[in-house]
Every structure is written in structure tokens, then in C-alpha cells.
Amino acid sequence: MDKFNCHSNEITLSEWQGRLTLIMLSIALCIFSCKKLVEVQPPSNTLAENNVYQNDASAISVLTGLFNSMNAVEITNPVQGSGSITLFTGLSSDELALYGGVTNRVYQEYFHNALQVTVVPGSGFNHWAPLYKCIFKCNAAIEGIASSNGLTPVVKQQLLGEAKFMRAFFYFYLVNLFGDVPLVLTSDPRINALSSRMSKGQVYEQIITDLRDAVELLSADYLTASLLSATTERVRPTRWAAEALLARVYLYIGEYPKAEEHATKLIGNTSLFGLSALNKVFLKNSREAIWQLQPTAPNFNTVEARTLIIPYTGPNSVDNPVYISDNLIGAFELGDQRGVYGNWVDTISYKISTSDFDTVVFPYKYKINSSPGATTSSDMTEYFMVLRLGEQYLIRAEARAEQGNIAGAQEDLNDIRSRAGLANTTASDKTALLSAILHERQVELFCEWGHRWFDLKRTANVDAVMSIVTPEKAKGAPWQSYQKLYPLPLSDLQQAPNLIQNIGY
User: Which pLDDT band, with edges at 50, 70 and 90, does 49 fall under?
Assistant: First the structure.
């Protein structure tokens, strides 16, 4: 098995070429490594690549491999675990605290908002290459599937929809982490090497194009592994996943009528979706789930639970380096059931000396961090949540408030508050409602996919919040506005003539 760690961002080009060839020959997983974007090469065995898309089973395996790789127990996996978007953006924002015994400089620099690109190992760009690796896989799949004449038509349509949806999904995170980014839409390395950064607006245009295509291509039903029949397993993207991401994207770019429209499609589909009780939300195939990832490693459920649930021995520098910050603990209102120990948070007291104990609070949305003997989905009770209905209520509430629909925004906000055991909101005008919705997103979507970090930035609240938080956690060091964007890898800047660094780095 390959070894991954924060101190090694390099594998040789020949190794990567060999791995890509192996992917196409054996339908292996999309590998989350840290190699440079500009050096990505296509598979050297073109015949093997073409053959992959000439029958249903092998073509399906390409996308299945991409989904499976998002469960990888690796530091370079941006989706779950100790190198995830959730963890790093949680450290960057006011959401997570870093265990004092951690000596890993990369973690420290995210936590202190002091990212470095000129030293090894650099920090801030940890998700750049892994996300582009998966975009490359999506580009290759789109090209191969579109040109194939050997696939069953309904399978071809679904796979093309999945590949376009996933490309949009990965670009959404790139643009929100780094700002303007190269818009790479081909698997041709000669073109990719000359890519320059495109504006966020241009990237969002492509995201919307891919998602609108995906809405038309993807099935409205959850499908089995063959893509030929329906299932109750919510582990492959459907039309509803594309609608959900479209609602989020339209909210982010300020197209509020469209954000409301797409969120309403999901909220209104009550035969398939509904708000679950708090401790049922993150169970596998819950009614709240729009899209989940099915765990693939034996003996536990989600990688997220293994990382975020603090063991009885307390936090540590390797497997469990973070816990909930005082800022987030203080954000829960009195009576909020999400903040009650045993629901969405929990606590542990651990011995720090022969007579002294320390106590931390940690995320507890996922509750199974060890499941000995679990080897198949039937042995598991939790899947990893990617998109869920609760977010759609808050998207629609915000979109309605922005359009002056005060009563409609209150209704959506109150649905989320009621589920948490809280009284109806007292906010009664646009300004107060938008503030209340931002707060509700903080306590509803915490430790899920970077929502808090992205919300602070897109609502122009990041400077006000972080100018207070950063000095508290970084020993007095000031917050600087440029730190809201992560830096690009220095090695890519040195080798890609058209790339420029984010301001401040």
C-alpha cells in the first residue's frame, strides 16, 4: 500500500504515468496524490483507455472508482479524514480548535491562518492537486463515454451525467478555496500545461453548464451498480444531487430566484426527501440524504467519524488532532438539541497527568468510529453525507429573504429550528433574517464540507469575524484579508508559465 503523509508532496512522473495506465487497465480508483497539475499525463496505453468505455461494466467501474476513492483513508484525501476540506477549513475558520500537542506544521499554519508556500512542506494548497486529479479523471471519462458506441444508451446517459456532475462538484470546491482557478476541460496535458486562471464568474458559468447538463442526463431514481434498476441505496448521484448543487451555486452567485426554484424542487419532493430526526440524519439512506458515499474500508463506517470522534485517551497529534472550538460551542442557543451532548456533539474528559483531567467537545454527527467485523454495507449503519435536505431549507430561506419574502424565509428557517427543539425566529426584517440564517447555518452545517468558511467569505463577514478569532488562536498574530484564499503550489507556479499566485503569498 502507498504511504501518504503531509511531509511528502512528490511522486515521480514515471510513477504517475504508470498509475494512470494501471487505472485504465484495471479500473482502479482515482488516486488522491499531491503531484503537480501541470505534469498530469494521460494514460500511455490509448487502446486500453478506449476499451474501458466499450462495455457497461468497465465504464461503470471508472465512476464507481472515483466515488470509492472519496472514502480513502489517506492524508491526501480532500473529502474525509485528517486531510479533508472539512478539517482544514474548520481550522481556518472559527469552527475547530487544534490539539496543543500537534507538532505538524501544516495543521498549525491552517489553524493560525499563516499558510506558507516557500518552505517544505508548504501549506494551503493541499487540496489543489487532489481535486485537479479528479477533474482530470472526469474529463477523461466525459471524452471516453461521449465517443463510445459500445454502451447501453441509458447507462451511457447516466455515466455522462455523473461525470459532468462530479466535475462541477470538484470545481465548486476549487473556486471557493482558491478563487480564480484554471478551467481545465480536457485530458490533453499539452493544453492543460498552458492553462491560466479564469475568473470565478467564468468557472461558475462552467459549473452551471455541467450541472444543467447533469440534471437532464441523470436518473431521478437511485440506481443499482448496473445502473439499470432502482435501489434504496443513495450512493450514486441522481438528478436531485445536481439540483441541490445548482441551488447552492445560484445562492453563492446571488441569483436568488433560481436558488429558490431549485431548492423548492427538492423540498417539494416529499415522496423521496424529508427532514429526519436529529440522530437519524446521518444514518445510511436517511430521508434527509440527497447523496451519500458508501464506506469501503473494513471495520468501521465513515472515515470522518474515525477522525472527529475523540477517543477516551483524548485528542492526539495524528488520528484525532481537532475538536470543537469555544466559538462554536458558544454559538448554540439555550435549548438547541444539536448542542446537547450525545446528539450532534459529545464530550470526553481525559487524563493529562496522574491527577489532572482535561475536557473537550467534539463533533458527533457520525457516531460509529469503530465497527469490528463490518465488511459490507449491510454491516454498516452510517454513510458519509455529501448533500442533504437541511441545507436546501436554509438555501431557500436565504434566497427568499434576499427577495423580500419575509414570511417564506421565516417558515423555512423555523422548520430547521423546530427540528432542533428551538422556538420560531424573532427576526422580522431582511437584515435580521439574513443574520439569523447565517447563524443557523453555523450550528446546522458545522463540520460539513467547509460551509462555515465559505459562508463567512461569501457574505463578506470573514474580516469582521476572523479579525477577532485569529489573534485569539494565533498568539496575537493579526488577521489579514488576503488569508481568505489559499495559496497555489509554488512548484506549479514555477513550471506553468500562465499561472499567478494569490495576492499576499
Answer: low
